[in-house]
């Protein structure tokens, strides 16, 4: 049985909260949406010289000859998903992780540490994100390397040392690209108009803007807004201003429920989501279980 080692970029990509889709739409409609989304992801993978290795449920795995091709495919997937979501009442979100290194190839099977690391990277990626590793970033052309920035260090199972983790800026707008150029003062000028979010809970309120870029909600007294009931984690959720968008990141045990002004609801479980317009946030419980104990949010445009 022939076996050889090849340097490849390994990618895992999956659909976020597909279980919630089945609960909201029913098996038939949800399955159709999932299949359409997977088909789009596979198409973008193949059109960027990727090879589909496996489809498992709502996840695909593929390999590329270079991190450049992998990153192009990942960005194409996220942009296609964003275009699909425009105007949709039920938006879908995907997350993508990839790593670059030696892969053992044996007929139609792949083995090795690179696959394990890629899988781990994908598992810590949040909705609407592309995450990768130093091995991949260092092998990118300089222009593409500018579209990445380090966001954290983490433990990888089986590894003695922690890994640096990089986020890929896939958005095409200049504001998002500016966010990647950390430390470059030439890009630090604020726009004439900026956005601000107001959060209200009972008699408490706070703002998130260019001067106060994040807020934490939870039952701990140190939180910007304290929501203290049995289903709330100590530091349940974080909302921060990134490149002109307000991103909510669930970091709780019981999840976070969000309802937008059009009535569309989303459940986050250790995931991120971009908030828009106005709506409400329910920490740890669904709106059916707890319709009143909610945090309201409103996003407005104000003068700089």
Automatic annotation (TrEMBL):
Occurrences of domain Guanylate cyclase (ranges): 9-122
Alphabetical list of InterPro entries matching this protein: A/G_cyclase, Adenylyl/Guanylyl_Cyclase_3/4, FHA_dom, Nucleotide_cyclase, SMAD_FHA_dom_sf
PROSITE patterns documented for this protein: FHA_DOMAIN, GUANYLATE_CYCLASE_2
Gene Ontology process terms (BP): cyclic nucleotide biosynthetic process; intracellular signal transduction
Domain FHA: 215-258
Gene Ontology MF: a single term: adenylate cyclase activity
PANTHER family given in the database record: ADENYLATE CYCLASE, TERMINAL-DIFFERENTIATION SPECIFIC, ADENYLATE CYCLASE, TERMINAL-DIFFERENTIATION SPECIFIC-RELATED
Record protein name field: Adenylate/guanylate cyclase domain-containing protein
